[in-house]
Amino acid sequence: MTSRHVTAPVTRGGVKSQLPKELLNASLFPWESGSSSTFFITHLSTMNLTTVEKTLEGGCTCRTVRYRLTSKPLIVHCCHCTWCQRETGSAFAINALFPAEDVIHLNEEPITIKIPSLSGRGQIIARCPRCSAAVWSNYAGGGPAIRFIRVGTLDEPGETVPDVHIYTSTKVPWVVLPDGVEVFEEYYDVAKVWGKETSERRFEVLERVKSGKGV
User: Tens digit of pLDDT for each residue in 145-187?
Assistant: First the structure.
């Protein structure tokens, strides 16, 4: 029997990284002998399999609006601000940030409405024209170039884990944050949190939109 090996890159907050060398060489068959197989079994249980790069799709409740994401997210937010709490009727909102050019519409177009926001500059919410489910938002900082995809509208929302928790100063007290996550009482310094590669990717997207070559 021929062994197969794990070779897929993994991402964290949209930034690609590589699996440990031992895991890349590990057999997928636990009955095969050798330390690499043992390493694989030990680490597979703790590795976030959702970080393996894959194509994601989602949409509204009635499936009138459907979309496909053709890239990895820039970052995934879990926002605990009172505005998100009020707008969603929940304790927080989870948004995955994607370049708008990487959000492919598969069915009918959503309708958009503008509502007030914490910054005072407003936000645009895209909703299904039939069931009114919100599928993404655009905020003033990224304009039309960056879409905040509502993670709950993904077909497999449980696979997209927040990279950062923001505005935790207004987090409801019964929500317990996981150990080891990045937490900010308000917002954060994008350059420091996103890193060079992702920040450059965001800059390129914004520049394309400004020049008329993007969305």
Answer: 899 999 999 999 999 999 999 999 999 999 999 999 999 999 9
Model confidence, pTM: 0.71
Confidence of residue 106 (pLDDT cuts 50, 70, 90): very high
Q: 108 by DSSP, 3-state: which? A: coil
Distance between CA atoms of 138 and 205, rounded to whole angstroms?
14
CA-CA distances (angstroms) from residue 141 to 91, 115, 117, 202? 24, 15, 12, 11
Q: Where are the domains of the chain?
A: 10-51, 56-210
The DSSP secondary-structure symbol of 64 reads S
Cβ–Cβ under 8 Å, residues 83 and 117: yes
Q: Which CATH architecture describes the domain 56-210?
A: Alpha-Beta Complex (3.90)
